[in-house]
Amino acid sequence: VNIAGWEAEVTRWGWRDLLDDGCLDIAQPEVCALGGVSEYLKVRTLAHTRFIPVINHVWGSALAVALNLHLLVAMPDLPGAMHPRTPMLEFDTFENPFRDEIVTKPSQLEKGYIGIPTGPGLGIEVNEEIVKKYLAKK
User: What's residue 100's pLDDT?
Assistant: First the structure.
């Protein structure tokens, strides 16, 4: 049984120790918890240099989903992989207004697959009315 996880680890040094100690078979870093793309890329490199696959942990907003989709399609194949890589994304299917309402076109699963946003930047457009709605609740 493969062990996957550690999305709660928020430093590259903690990830280094987890990977060196053989604590997991599949790394699931959370780019937003790590502090952004630069730190995520360092953790991904740490995992890949130890031949440990990465399946991003994603929970939260549509912005986080879009960012992770772009990171996944840009991920290099794991060195020594015997089969062609199919990027995998952990996608929570519970109702989530910050994922589904905060953008004009939310990501949709279709038969287990999800499309990559293609617009400028992260490829998504924020629904300003929903942002105002949540700001008014402060």
Answer: 86
Q: Which residues are catalytic?
A: 57
C-alpha distance across the termini of the chain, in Å? 45
pLDDT tens digits, 54-78? 988 988 888 999 999 999 888 877 6
Instruction: For residue 86, count CB atoms less than 10 angstroms from its CB and return exposed for 0-12, middle for 13-18, buried for 19 or more.
Output: exposed
Q: Which of 53, 55, 54, 56 is nearest to 80 (CA)?
A: 53
- pTM equals 0.83
Rounded Cα distance between 74 and 7, Å, is: 20
Backbone angles phi, psi at 40, to 5 degrees: -60, -45
